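Late entry, evening session. Most of the bench is empty. Finally got around to the prediction I had been postponing all week. Sequence below, unchanged from the version circulated by S.P.
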Amino acid sequence: MPLTADDDIRDLLANARTIALVGASDRPDRPSYGVMKRLRDHGYRVIPVNPQITGEHVHGEFVFRELGQLGDPIDIVDIFRRSEAAGDVVDEAIAIGAKAVWMQLGVVNDAAAARAEAAGLKVVMDRCPAIEIPRLGVAPVGQD
């Protein structure tokens, strides 16, 4: 079952340090652009992933083509993709040993969530961490 209890979501966010944001955009009018900025401002290291803008920079971070290129351990893979595309991202997250997958508002893929949970990952669906952090009172990274 995906995480739905406030305490569980708060714990996930409080213990995360590095987030891979799949579907990151370099366009300020896109939700992923603003969410990445808010997560960075809260103290997380956010690594953008988007094959369409690979090699560019978003908020000063190099944009990677796919999760498999990342060399750092990832606590949360934040998915800004359509529900149908989330399954492939979840499979990549499992392959790189991420600790959790977070499907953004409107993104629901029960089969992918089940695969992630079977592989030991925590799952959040149809929520936004930039909304949950202030709602749950999660302290800025490094200030807990």
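Two things to note before I forget:
The chain has a mean pLDDT of 96.
The first helix runs from residue 6 to 15.
Will write this up properly tomorrow.
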